[in-house]
Every structure is written in C-alpha cells, then in structure tokens.
Amino acid sequence: MSARIALKIDVDTYRGISDGTPRLASFLLSQKIPASFFISLGPDNSGWAVTRLFRHSGFLKKMKRTSALSIYGFRTALSGTLFPARPMGTSFRDQFREWRDQGFEVSPHGYDHILWHDQAATWNAQRAMCELEKVRDVYRHIFGEDPRSFAAPGWQAGEGTWQAMDSWKLLYHSDSRGTRPFFPTLNGSTLKTLEIPTTLPTWDEMLAWDGITRHNLVEETWKLLKKDQLNVWTIHAEFEGTVYFPQFHEFVERAAREGVEWVYLPKVAQTILKNPERVPCDTIKQGSLPGRAGTVTCQHG
Predict the structure, then answer these.
(1) Which residue range(s) make up the domain with 75?
(2) For 89-102, what is each residue's pLDDT tens digit?
(3) Which of 74, 85, 98, 220 could bridge across to 43 with cysteines, CB 3.0–4.6 Å?
(4) Residue 90 contacts by C-beta under 8 Å, 6 or more apart in sequence?
(5) Residue 208 pLDDT exceeds 60
(6) Model pTM?
(7) What is the pLDDT of residue 169?
(8) Number of structural domains, the chain?
C-alpha cells in the first residue's frame, strides 16, 4: 500500500504570491499533482513578525537555521514597518483565477497574516467575524462567490474563529495540527464544519531539529509518512517555492518512484462527509511542536 498525501500550500506574503506560487503551480501542473493554495488576502505586514523575537522562545534559532532572510528578502522582512504593506489579494486577481482554472483550489489564508497568527486564538466570535468579513469581501471581489474552505495562519484557531466560520457553511477548514479529520467540539457542543488538520511537520520546523539539514531533509520527511492514514502536508510558497524548491522537486521525484497517491483536499472532504457519523468529534488545545516557536492549535482527542 502506498502513502496518500494531500498537499496544502500556505502563501503568507506578497513575495510568496509573486515568486513562489507561480513556480510551484507550474511544476505541480506538469506533474499532474493536485494542490490547495491558501493565500493571505490582506496587507503584507510581515515586518511586524520581528516582535516574536521577544515573545517566542526559539524564533531566532528558527530564523537562522532556515536562512529566513534569503527566503523572504529585505522588502518582505520590512513590509508594514519601514516599507508600506503591499495589498496581496487585490494585486493578483488574474493569477488567482488562472490557478483555479488550472484545477487548483485557491482559498483564503486569513486577511492580515501577522494579526491572525498572533491574536486569533483568543478572539471571540464577534471579533473573528470582523476579520473574516474582510476575507470574504476580497474573495468575492476576486471570484464572485464565497470561499468553500479556509486555512488559519500559523495554525491558530479557537472557539471564536470556529464559531464564526461555522456560519459560512464551508466544505472544510484546515486550521490545526493533528492526526485525522474531525468535527471540533467546543464547550460540549459539536460544530458542523469539518476540520482536516496538518499531520506532518513543516520543513521550516524540521530544519530546527538537531541533525536535520537541507541535504537529508527529503529522506527524513519520507520516514514520517504513514501508509495507514491520510498525510496532510503543508508547505509554504516562500520556502519550498524558492530557496528549497530543489528539495521539493527531489521529494516529488521520489514520490513518483514510490507510487505515492496525491489526493485533493476538497475531494477528501467530500468523501468524508458522505458518512459524517463516522467522523470523530475532538476538542482542541494550544500546544508546542518541535522546531516551532510559540504554540499552535492542536487536535485533542
């Protein structure tokens, strides 16, 4: 039995849209690999991420181990601080439509990535809806319809964000880290929207682990794949679409040799929802992960 991988691509920055996403989309199209692009649609305020140096232990180590400045560049590193924050969603409308026409899923990854990443887990439903309405307005402007899925920046979800999103009637969201798709249970009440968590570590996390380098990254990732469950792999346009594209290319080549089945997240969700009674209902908690600064929302069975 070969492994099944659902590829989820987060696009956090203006540079990620302009540089990384076109390279990934072109390559994946040539390989006939389905993928979901989750794109931040508001201003690129990436320059404010530097404040995490004072709030998250391990953030500086991560930046050094991943050569973050060479990945993001000075313009992105100072965006929203010394340089104006460039609008992301409204700047690339034609490209978004083109990628969707090519068969990729193109969905929101929040509005202001930095703001959501740093605050959203504590929002109530009213505050979350204010931010989500901005997301929906931009998405409607691009596609003329409401989004059908969502991925939270930094895997930051909470009672407020999921209660607000439940009214959207999404096919699914992918906001947490875990092991299996589930319906979130909050304060004893089960929500209607399916959550499909990321199951594999990201490469920027793995590179902060002892003994992991760009030279053994593909091999070490391969060891983590599970053949008895869905592997949801999140990559980043800024990372695997630029400096680490050769390693991503290498992984895809190995996957082809090993007979990996690449699956499409919307189809996964549709299949699961044919039998909702079989879907587990799990709670969530904020937890830490090896190589990631700060905490993320984790599935808690």
Answers:
(1) 4-300
(2) 999 999 999 999 99
(3) 85
(4) 138, 141, 142
(5) yes
(6) 0.91
(7) 93
(8) 1
